[in-house]
From TrEMBL:
Protein's name in the database: Binding-protein-dependent transport systems inner membrane component
GO terms for cellular component: plasma membrane
Tagged with keyword Transport: yes
CDD domains in alphabetical order: TM_PBP2 (cd06261)
Spans traversing the lipid bilayer: 12-33, 68-94, 106-128, 140-159, 180-205, 239-262
Membrane topology: Multi-pass membrane protein
Species annotation: Celeribacter baekdonensis B30
Keyword field: Cell membrane, Membrane, Transmembrane, Transmembrane helix, Transport
Localization in the cell: Cell membrane
Family: Belongs to the binding-protein-dependent transport system permease family.
Amino acid sequence: MGKLISTTLTRALLGLLIIVALGPILWTVLGAFKELRDIVTPVPKLIFEPTLDNFATILRNPTIRDGLLHSVIVVSASVLVGAVLGIPAAHTLARHARRWGDDVQFFVLSLRFMPPVAIAIPFIVIYLDLGIYDTLFGLILVYLITTISTVIWLAVPAFERVPHDIEEAAAMEGCGPAEVFWRFSLPLAAPSLFGALVFTFVLVWNELLLALTLAAQNATLPVVAASITSLGKEVPWGVINAATVLLVLPPLVFIGLLMGLLNTMVRSGPK
């Protein structure tokens, strides 16, 4: 009897935590399909006539479309370059950097300690001198500080968990360092590396301060979504909810693509 009560209370608590965690997300999604009069009613409406007008308003707005395109370009480029440079660097730190590896890792981690506001003004001055202020290229460059440091920070432990015996056996069979990395180390560390890429993607996708200060005219989607509240005399809650849903969809698509690639690599395994 006591075990039954304990199990029931545990499940009830877990259910309550799930409701608390998912409640705002579900309410935002529902609000994206509501008209303004259904959102601002004193008594919240759970039964309403859904509408796509909020999404139509977003898709008809060239500023929002451009913001989405800018975000896709900037985030994709910064994450891709961060992965190309950060993953091999992390493997080198995990396997070959014996004396100075800890110092380099501490320096990389210290880049994550730095608040964005600390580098915003210096980058404005530098970018104005270089002529790349308010450009997507300049925003990609500053985002590389985040992507490369985050990928290295999360990828080093992933490669350290790869058994040395496998790499040593491959080397004894005649595989060179690059071949050992591509055929054995990378596939075995892939699950953790994909998690690092997802975290990095979400981190850069949601970034607001640097995008606002370094590329105000070439605004990314978070900057555009934040500016919607200033449109008109009343807050367009339905449009804001739709913009929030639109802001969340690309990371979910990115996660789905990585999960599909991960499943393919797991089934194939090291060769």
